[in-house]
Design the sequence.
């Protein structure tokens, strides 16, 4: 059962998306869902390398400029970022603001937070809980040139 936390990132979620502790999150993935031309959900997996919250209402994402998710965001402006962790499951509903910044093969979108929904287990589910986040491996090195390029694209003004 999801409840709205409002139209801004709570402090713990802002911290998670701020890249302040990026090394500890390098092996985790987050679904980013856009809407395709038929208005169907179109999921992709992002990493914390591709997401940067600049304040409580603004998230930047850097994704492949020629991918379907970039096209969907440019055409329909709607996205939901999903965080699945043992501690919390959160859906961040956003709207793309303005045209993306193209940096090489990446499109950097600025997403404005419209609603943050926190999901919690229904009491009827008993003790069933999420036990792990979505992970991948091996985690990339922060010294990898592709990683540096992505981080630079996110931090550009």
Sequence:
């Amino acid at each position: 059962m999801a409840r709205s936390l409002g139209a801004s990132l709570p402090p713990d979620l802002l911290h998670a998306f701020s890249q302040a502790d990026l090394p500890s999150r390098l092996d985790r993935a987050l679904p980013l869902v856009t809407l395709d031309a038929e208005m169907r959900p179109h999921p992709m997996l992002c990493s914390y390398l591709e997401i940067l919250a600049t304040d409580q209402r603004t998230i930047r994402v850097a994704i492949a400029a020629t991918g379907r998710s970039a096209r969907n965001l440019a055409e329909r402006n709607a996205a939901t970022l999903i965080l699945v962790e043992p501690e919390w499951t959160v859906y961040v509903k956003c709207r793309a603001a303005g045209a993306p910044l193209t940096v090489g093969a990446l499109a950097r979108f600025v997403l404005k937070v419209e609603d943050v929904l926190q999901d919690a287990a229904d009491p009827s589910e008993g003790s069933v809980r999420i036990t792990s986040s979505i992970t991948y491996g091996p985690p990339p090195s922060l010294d990898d040139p592709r990683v540096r390029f992505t981080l630079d694209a996110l931090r550009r003004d």
About this structure: The chain has a mean pLDDT of 95.
